[in-house]
Amino acid sequence: xxxxxxxxxxxxxxxxxxxxxxxxxxxxxxxxxxxxxxxxxxxxxxxxxxxxxxxxxxxxxxxxxxxxxxxxxxxxxxxxxxxxxxxxxxxxxxxxxxxxxxxxxxxxxxxxxxxxxxxxxxxxxxxxxxxxxxxxxxxxxxxxxxxx
Length: 148
Known about the structure:
By secondary structure, this protein is mostly helical. The chain is 59% helix and 0% strand. It has a domain at 12-55. The longest helix has 49 residues, at 7-55. The two termini are 62 Å apart.
């Protein structure tokens, strides 16, 4: 809880507490605060145990920290579980295929077959750095409204 409090900040809190409560009342205030914190922790632990017992034996390993979405995702990604379908999402973003389709559309060619069919047919992905073949003499180049 107080991981990032430095020595100067701690000293400032102590001096402020002495000034606010006085040296006579400070030990009593500290005891009251620690007693209250202990009661809150006990109440929290008993509430967690009650919830676990009500959920049943299949939730005996349930951690309340997993209710935080960031913690849940971090745990799922660290364990390598793919319950969220992240692998399918990553595979659906095939930028080479998308770029090839855009290039074909701009050049007026038909799109290449889908990636699984092309891989099955043994076709290689098109090289986007190569210059396209020159159009026939009677064929007009594709019109590009953005280029004019």
